[in-house]
Design a protein that fits this description.
Elements: H1 7-16, H2 22-30, E1 47-48, E2 54-61, H3 68-78, H4 104-111, H5 119-129, E3 140-146, E4 152-157, H6 163-173, H7 175-180, E5 184-188, H8 194-197, H9 200-206, E6 211-215, H10 220-228, E7 235-238, E8 241-246, E9 249-258, E10 262-272, E11 276-281, H11 288-298, E12 299-300, E13 306-312, H12 323-331, E14 339-343, H13 348-356, E15 381-384
Parallel strand pairs: 1-12, 4-5, 5-6, 6-7, 11-13, 13-14
Antiparallel strand pairs: 2-3, 2-15, 3-4, 8-9, 9-10, 10-11
């Protein structure tokens, strides 16, 4: 029997786990087998999403924040993981009242008139009103898709966090020019979290008319932010489940509760000719096993093969470790990926365990403030197909 699940149930259940500590609460609903109760058991549907020739991913920025201790300290002092992310007083929504006393309405009122075209002025205000400004970074990646007929298409996955940092990263990788030239046809937002979404005005600075896909589950502040940031293009709210975008590329929205009062994550599946399925994720809060099992249950793909995976895999994102995480590392072997490109909330400890286990991990260069070659860092690329 399928079990219903809503945000009230999530909050009640997560609150009862607070006594296990900060990381313990994360484990309660991000890693526990109980998470599977939120998904129905299904026979394989073998849905055909089409086929493409190749996927090339450029890591614009995987450094969502620069110091774990600063982020975790802020979360603890502000009241914990269940606090509304818009209340932390992190950039850009600071009201000058200090940690844990922020609000979206008060914060956006101070900078709205400068969005999205005068981000330098907005950031100068943010530096005065917000806490831990220098710790903000962001996650964003560019997907270069080649279709079977040779047509090239580009999609942006997420828009990071810090206006200052993400603008630097966009310019470093030429994303600013691609957006100005309308080469990137859509921005796919994985989820509402600060480090993936709050840098939205940086994308809109260069193309305010870009099509945006957001997953079902955004809160009112998140939806309002799109308007307040100056978006003039098409906004598509993707319903839970499978959403085909172009032949060979689809997104899937997982209705999962996430820390800091965020709900739902949208991940990407690509079917590469003669190779198999490539899975691309922002954070994978739904869990890497659920991500893979959903593909197996739902999709038809070349050679019935899990070919590659890229992104944050959400195993020990703060580089803590617990024996249950070893089970996830071991379980990954069951899916027999040919290529693994991990970073961001995968955690360096986990990435190194993947390497020690002999998994086909593509190493990075540890440039542009990424910390280690164990995973694909800022400016690194990976090609599937």
């Amino acid at each position: 029997m399928n079990k219903s699940f809503d945000r009230r149930t999530f909050l009640k259940g997560a609150t009862t786990g607070v006594g296990f500590g900060l990381v313990g609460v994360m484990g309660l609903y991000s890693y526990s087998p109980l998470r599977k109760a939120h998904f129905p058991n299904v026979d394989r549907k073998m849905t055909d999403i089409g086929t493409l020739k190749s996927v090339h991913v450029t890591n614009i920025s995987e450094t969502s924040w620069f110091e774990n201790a600063v982020l975790m300290g802020d979360i603890k002092k502000a009241g914990g993981l269940l606090v509304n992310q818009y209340d932390y007083n992190w950039p850009p929504f600071g009201n000058g009242k200090g940690l844990g006393k922020g609000s979206y309405e008060e914060g956006i009122a101070k900078i709205k008139q400068y969005l999205p075209h005068d981000l330098e002025k907005a950031w100068s205000i943010i530096e005065q009103e917000c806490v831990s400004v220098e710790n903000a970074g962001g996650f964003a990646a560019l997907l270069d898709i080649e279709e079977l007929d040779g047509t090239k298409r580009k999609f942006l996955l997420d828009s990071g966090w810090s206006y200052k940092w993400m603008d630097e990263c966009f310019k470093r990788e030429g994303i600013d020019a691609m957006l100005r030239n309308k080469e990137i046809e859509a921005l796919i937002i994985s989820h509402e979290h600060f480090d993936h979404y709050w840098g939205l005005p940086v994308t809109l600075k260069y193309d305010p008319d870009i099509t945006i896909y957001i997953p079902e589950g955004f809160y009112e502040e998140g939806k309002q932010y799109i308007k307040d940031s100056g978006h003039t293009g098409k906004l598509i709210e993707v319903k839970n489940g499978l959403n085909k975008i172009i032949p060979g590329l689809a997104t899937y929205v997982f209705p999962v509760p996430i820390i800091c009062r965020v709900f739902g994550e949208q991940s990407i599946y690509c079917n590469v000719k003669d190779k198999g399925l490539v899975s691309v994720t922002g954070c994978c809060h739904q869990g890497i096993i659920q991500f893979a099992e959903t593909a197996y249950n739902e999709l038809k793909y070349e050679n019935d093969n899990f070919y590659g995976i890229y992104g944050g895999l959400h195993i020990s994102p703060f580089d803590d470790w617990d024996p249950k995480y070893d089970d996830l590392v071991i379980s990954l072997r069951n899916y027999d990926f040919d290529v693994i490109g991990c970073n961001h909330c995968t955690g360096l400890v986990c990435a190194n365990k993947f390497i020690q286990a002999g998994y086909p991990v593509v190493r990075g260069t540890a440039q542009h403030r990424s910390k280690d070659t164990a995973y694909l860092g800022n400016g690194d690329t990976i090609t599937f197909g």
